[in-house]
Amino acid sequence: MTFIPDHFTVWMEIPVTDLDKAVTFYNEVFQTELVRVADMGPNEFAMFPVKDGGRAGHLYPGKPPARGSGATIHLACPDSLEETMERFATAGGEVISDPVAIPAGRFAYGIDPDGNSIGMLAQ
């Protein structure tokens, strides 16, 4: 039997060296309000909100992989790809690709201030 779930990706974790700075970066770039949680584990973390009160993953205090060498997490743009790319760079990240068109929309690659590989996807 072949396993085919509704959503294969069920959670993401992005390690950051400074949680406060990372929350500010992701809130600014993706125009969201990460939810800080201090009572669910050994460390405080900040969760990415989704509709209906759900969560999609979190930032946590940890050791990021070497710059750009870890998995790439693709995050939804709140507006145009170009506007998100501009905020990404202004907030301290580095945009490392031009926009790429795919059937689902357009995306670009960036490296966040901690060296994590982040995709910005506009549908």
TrEMBL record:
Q: Which Pfam families match?
A: Glyoxalase (PF00903)
Q: Provide the VOC domain boundaries.
A: 4-123
Q: Which domain of life is it from?
A: Bacteria
Which protein is depicted? VOC domain-containing protein
Taxonomic lineage is: Bacteria, Pseudomonadati, Pseudomonadota, Alphaproteobacteria, Hyphomicrobiales
